[in-house]
Structures are given as C-alpha cells and as structure tokens.
Write a structure and sequence with these properties.
single chain; alpha/beta; TIM Barrel; eight-stranded parallel barrel; 11 strands
Length: 347
C-alpha cells in the first residue's frame, strides 16, 4: 500500500493517481475510484471533468461519499482557463464562469484545489507570444480570487503540454496572486518545453499544491533533441532523485502518477526558426537540458508512440480488440510505475 512508502522518518507524502493514466478504460468515476483504491492510491486526481462524469451537486456528493468509504482523497481539475489559448473552450463559458463552476464543484466534492492549465506548446508561437497568454490567464484567475477564497479552494496551474517553462509559470502565479494560486508541478511536460524536470521542481517547489509525475527519456537525434515519456524508472532524468527531492521540498503535497508511455517529439534546435517560441530561454537552464540529451540513448522502435496514450489513435478509431489492448497497456504501465515509485519513495 502507498502508506508503506512513508514508513521511514521524514516528510510524508501521499501517493496517488491522475486519471489521465487510465483515460482509455471507459470507466465511470466510481469504477476509477475502486481500481485506484485497490492499487493502493491514497489520492485520486480527476484532472478533467470527463473523468468525474459531470458537475451536478448530487453526483459530486456521491463521488465524495464513495471516496470517503474507500479512504481516498479526491482532487479535481479542468483544462484551459486562458481565453486566448488554443485549448480554451469558449462554448463552456467565460474563463471566470468555468473557474467558478469548478471552484464550487471542488467545495462539494471535497477537493482542496482546482487544477487548471494555460494551453500547450503551440501557444508559444502565437503573435502575442506566451507572455501575452500569461497576462490573459493571470487576469482570468484574478477575476475569481474572492470566489476561491470564500470557498477555501486554491487554483493549481499546471505546466502543461509544453506551454510554459517553470520560470514563466512562476511569473503567472505571482501576477495572479500566490495567496490563492499555486502550481501543479508536472515532471513530464518540462521535456516538451526544453527544460530539465529538476529545474522545474527547484523553481516551482515554493508554489506547489500538487503534482503530476512520470518519467522521460531525453536523447540526441540528428535534428536536435528527442524526448519521450516512459514508465517510471525507465527514463534518464533521475526520477528517483526527483521524487525524493519533491518529498523534501514539497512536504505534504501529493505525488499523483500521470503515466503516459509515448509522447515522442523532436526539438529542432539547429533550425533558427524553431527558437521563435523560445527567445527568452535561459542559457544555463537550457544547458542542463542539453546535458541530459548528451547522456541519453534513443529508445528502440518498439517503444515508439502507440504503446500508450500519447501518439496513439483515439478510442473511437479503434475496434474493440484494439481498445482493450490499449486499456490493458495503460493498466500495466500504471501498475508497474506505481510499484517503482513506491521503491523510489523508500529511498
């Protein structure tokens, strides 16, 4: 069980699951809670509304009651709260309206915070640049400050899909108001933003509310630097050291495994145009990322995208056998990573 990871003296951390790890299962909120509880998770992170199955008050109360019976803590989240970002869903209402709904849902279901994101790496090359999106996101967050404080719910902004480096997320949090806004530190997304995950953790630890944790490979390719997500313990970014550092720097904050196997991409650093989205990258931080690539080895073709979620076709494009195969791989990847993380926590 997860508690065994905390049997030694020192800061305690709860080990949980971000349900994106199980996105292909087709389970409802109660089935997801049951599975995670049997796995040994102490926290279940419903990082998107689709995993919850809706925001109706009666339903949220049932989810809270079921989690309580299992002894599992519930965390919830949403996608983009930045009205200028590509991933923002304007059909769901203004940023302030969406955030307000989620804050009220968090209060009902018993979540201490709402995880949210700005966007993805494509926002870095928009005409307004990532700086313009940060300004718009901060304004949206400030618009619900009183609502969040009245509900005693924080907003946890994730470094998501290569949208922001840690330094940029720090700027967003401080501009919005660190009294009610913090960070959901993701250890996998930094490699999509040309950043060493240890730089991300060291920069954002003072703002940590929770985390999404997975391992990564970083390696050189002729075009530049290749990256790919892997099971915990199979990468080359020292996730064992990262986990232990997180426990020391962010005591009491959950480690929620968001296991994705795949997500390969190439940073074409030899192409001057590629740097249009990274004009403000700090040289000494980039060198730490480059050092990871220098020491890395490209994965074999059998480990290419398609084994897990990232890079694979959607469930609607698969026949039933393919869907079950993907679901089984997700479970196997998560279960193996959960056990590896327990060993990392034991040190």
């Amino acid at each position: 069980m997860a508690g065994a990871a905390n049997s030694q003296p020192g800061p305690r951390v709860k080990l949980g699951v971000d349900l994106f790890s199980l996105g292909s299962q087709g389970w409802d909120a109660f089935q997801l809670l049951d599975y995670c509880s049997k796995l040994g998770a102490e926290v279940v992170h419903f990082s998107e509304i689709r995993f919850l199955g809706g925001l109706e008050e009666a339903h949220l109360k049932k989810v809270r009651e079921h989690a309580g019976r299992l002894g599992v803590e519930v965390e919830i989240g949403m996608m983009s709260m930045c009205p200028s970002a590509r991933r923002f869903d304007a059909k769901a209402g203004t940023a302030e309206e969406q955030l307000t709904r989620m804050i009220q849902a968090a209060r009902i279901v018993g979540s201490r915070f709402v995880r949210c994101v700005l966007g993805d790496s494509g926002d870095r090359t928009d005409p307004i640049g990532i700086e313009g999106h940060i300004e718009n996101a901060a304004k949206a967050l400030r618009g619900v400050r009183q609502v969040a404080q009245d509900a005693n719910v924080k907003l946890a902004v994730e470094n998501h899909a290569g949208d922001m480096q840690a330094r940029e997320l720090k700027i967003l949090i401080e501009e919005a108001g660190k009294d009610f806004v913090g960070a959901c530190i993701d250890s996998g997304n930094p490699v999509w933003a040309m950043e060493d995950p240890h730089v991300t953790l060291e920069t954002l630890a003072p703002y940590a509310v929770t985390s999404h944790v997975r391992d990564s490979l970083v390696y050189k390719v002729p075009e530049g630097i290749g990256v790919q997500w892997v099971r915990m313990g199979e990468g080359n970014v020292d996730m064992g050291g990262w986990v232990r550092k997180y426990v020391q720097l962010c005591p009491g904050r959950a480690i929620d495994l968001e296991v994705i196997v795949g997500g390969a991409r190439v940073h074409r650093i030899h192409d001057p145009k590629y740097w249009d989205g990274y004009r403000n990258v700090r040289a000494h931080e980039f060198m730490r990322f480059l050092d990871l690539a220098e020491k890395g080895t490209a994965p074999p073709p059998s480990a290419a995208p398609g084994r897990g979620q990232a890079g694979a076709p959607g469930r609607g494009q698969m026949d039933p056998a393919q869907r079950e195969q993907m679901a089984a791989r997700q479970r196997a990847d998560l279960e193996a990573s959960f056990q590896t993380c327990l060993q990392m926590l034991k040190g």
